[in-house]
Sequence to fold (155 residues):
Amino acid sequence: MSRLAGIGLKCNANQYGDMICMEHPTSRTHLRMSAVDRAAQFAPFAALSGFEEAIRQAQEKNKRGQDMITMLNRKSVYIGHDMKQFSEIRNLLAEKGIDCKYKVKNQMGEWSGEHGTIRSNMGVLGQDSSLDYEYEVFVHKDDYEKARRLVENLK
Fold:
């Protein structure tokens, strides 16, 4: 029985028979490379830059008992229509190491029943387009007071 048949592969022994029984070539000048060194050849760069740091931070949070932000443990620190302020708040929270989640809601794109969206039913003539989107920023309830003070000082 050939090596290939032993692991369940089918091949035409007449076509490849001379190669199947050959020994793996061994160099007289170079030592055989270990499996770890061979694997390292194919990973010369970190494909996911920052991944290791993100894992480390998540592990630290778990040690401190902090959870990820979910619907059950979050509080809203900002609701508004100003995209610039929304962006500034998210940047400030990130600078201070406070995790946040956000939701962007298109007010005019809401479905209004069987007749389509609000925009399609009412039109947009005379509407202030800056009010089309509502931005909401959430933080973990344990970070809420600190985040709330930061947001209030930003305004």
